Amino acid sequence: MSDITYAGRSRGQGPQGADAEALYPMLGQVVPGLVWVTGARGSFTYVNPRWEDYTGSSLDELNALGWEVFVHPDDGEQLKARWSDGRERQQPFEMELRYRRHDGAFCWLLTRTVPLFSPASQLDAWVTTAIDIEEQKNAQGPQAEAEHASQRLAAIVESSADAIIGKTVDGMVTSWNAAAEQMFGYSAEEMVGGSIFKLIPGHLHQEERELLDRLRQGERMEFAEAERVRKDGGRIYVAVSVSPIRNAQGQVVGASSIKRDVTERRQAQKALAQSQERLELALRSARMGTWQWNVETDDVSWDEGMNQIFGVTLDQQVTRFEQVLERVIDEDRESVQRDIRRALEESGALSSEFRIILPNGKVRWLSGTGRLVRDATGAPLSMTGVCLDVTDRRLMEERLRQAQRMDSVGQLAGGIAHEANNMMSVVLGCADYVLQRTDLPDQVRQDVDQIWRAAKRTAGITQQLLAFSRRQMLQPQILDLNATVRELEPILNRALGETRAVRMHLSPALGLIRADPGQLEQVLVNLTLNARDAMDEGGRLTIETMNVALDPAYVAAKPVETLEPGEYAALVVTDTGHGMDRDTLARIFEPFFTTKGVGQGTGLGLSTVYGIVKQSGGFIWAYSEPGLGTTFKLYFPIANAALQIDEPELPAPPGRPEEVVLVAEDEPMVRSIVARTLQGCGYGVLEAANGKEALWLLEREKGKINLIVADVVMPDMGGREMADIAAERWPDIPVLFTSGYTGLDVVRRGLLQEGSEFIQKPLEPETLARKVRQLVDATTSRS
Cα dist. 345→277, 339, 342, 640 in Å? Predict the structure, then answer.
């Protein structure tokens, strides 16, 4: 009988699906005799016409009756045993069996059955071919039967798809079938009488000698995979089964070796292992793990990725689902259980985000997804899914929310400051002029002085609002942070009071920073006052400075969008006060948020600190626990030590009456104060309530005006529109813009072009005088 092989596949791995359905009819036509195909459980999937004629039954009738009806009762158990052996060894087998014909008689058939396996080594089908040997069985005696068996054995050996090789106990080849020739490339003439070592790689020769020694002892050996050499030098891998051959006296005189080429299978397994390794690497890189939960038993199994996510070793990993829930923090556990119930009772799909606590106490955000498997009745069996560490994503989302919240509050603070700056310019200016009079009654002077003080305090609040929104004009310079701290030490000690003490630990090699010294002093004072209120029963305030290097990992862990890795000078302020809980700590930098009683605080102290530090290019981070005090860490970028400290500016020279300044301001009180200030500096002054009036005065005076001071936002016509028109007709007249908003705000709002001359309200007399003098001189030098 001929063996069955398929082009491009090793025997035992047959065609699948549509390929198989197309191949079986072809087998039925090409292979002589009877052909039938059964599934892994014995049901018929194909029979050729000869088999239908032999049994007198169609395919459907065969399946309705079952294969056992057609096999002689004495041969059924033997057939089952051979099926089991063939499945385990993945090898074809031959048998002589009695099958029932269409007339009811049992007749002898010689059958050859080939198992077909999927690439995953799952049995797919049995292909059986048979010929009728009833006449030969009846005609042969014992000797003829023996000869026939010998001939049949020789035919089996020669037609086998496996290489069947005979050899002596010394390794000399005694037989070599056609499959061996095809597998190794050597003909029988080249191998018979030669050494088997021709097929063995050099580094395995000693191993082969040891195997021959074991063979002499009568040992039977099997190897799932062994390396061999073809005639062309190529390497192949074979599954080997070696059985000793004995003579009549029972002595081992040789061996029969059966070899099956498993090179393709080995390559497929290797590719699968590499694919699995790449998958595991991808899962680890994505900080993802896979898991499976047996709903009935509550057993959980997961991969190494889950161990890494949960921060456990193999011997620490959980085995029960309830243990997984124990790792979820209390605040999230109920929502996770709700998501699980929904998946079990309704959708069958799990999707949940939650936090877990690692053995080291750290918290991670995880995203879990899963799919439920149900039985035929709809009852849940198991759930399989993946778990992803989304801590970084949640951190970035929190950074964005924090930035948006701070920006929104900052815009509000800037708007409030704009309006307050206009009014405070008027109040402070008028109070200054009144206080300059010498004929005021004492009671009036005291009242005006109180007005001036209240206005000054209100102006300070607007500056704090601008500090928080990072919109105030700083005057940064290169400075020594240690020197600033030492100079303030007496003030800080007095601010703390007798029951509290200041301790200094200042690094002698601290790098220089670039900051506004006045604002930095305000930061220290605000933090000290805050610490004083937190230590109502006394305590200690510790101020430290040090150089720190922030690496990318540290920066990535902080919810500060603009923070960059690099060298920083750190200012650390720690108190021993009552501390704060998590909710309070999350809001301490918000304007007007305070834990103090009504009338005891504005809620702007820490928000001011936050704004000043951020605008100085640094960042601030707070740590606190109830009952354990609070620590503020302020980081300022190290500045270039070669930069020089700016020299203080001298007072501006006075103006002359022929130097005319046009003041365009829609708020009458502000316009009056600005005009009086410039007149007091010696300039000639004209006033306009908006841009249109300013253009009318420019036309009337015909070049006599040296400078325009204009508010950016005015009704009818704003300062920018007016300036654009004026620039076309009187290009030599400069424009100084003013606003209660900062220059950054007016540029962002599109009210002013970047680079325009600008001064922010409230307008300090000296600052205004200096800027006006500078621009008037520039105009004079051009003319």
Answer: 36, 10, 5, 65
Residue pair 67/39 in contact by the 8 Å Cβ criterion: no
Tell me which long-range contacts 57-61 makes (C-beta under 8 A, separation of at least 24). 57/102
Question: Which pLDDT score is estimated for 10?
Answer: 34
Q: Residue 42 has which token pair?
A: 């014995």
Question: Crossing angle for the helix pair 391-435 and 668-680, nearest 10 degrees?
Answer: 60
What CA–CA distance (Å, rounded) separates 364 from 385? Answer: 18
Q: Where are the alpha helices (DSSP H) in 390-441?
A: 391-435
Structure token digits, residue 203: 């580094």
Q: How many CB atoms lie within 10 A of CB 219?
A: 13
Identify the pLDDT of residue 140. 59
Domains of the chain: 17-152 (3.30.450.20), 162-267 (3.30.450.20), 286-389 (3.30.450.20), 395-468 (1.10.287), 477-637 (3.30.565.10), 660-782 (3.40.50.2300)
Q: Which two structure tokens, joined as six digits, stand for 164?
A: 């069947």
Tell me the two tokens of residue 196.
């088997």
Question: Residues in the chain with pLDDT < 70?
Answer: 1-32, 139-160, 268, 271-287, 314-317, 398-418, 457, 459-475, 559-562, 591-604, 641-650, 741-751, 754-755, 780-783
Q: Is the pTM of this model over 0.85?
A: no
| Coil/strand/helix, residue 570 | strand
- 777 SS3 class: helix
pLDDT value of residue 685: 93
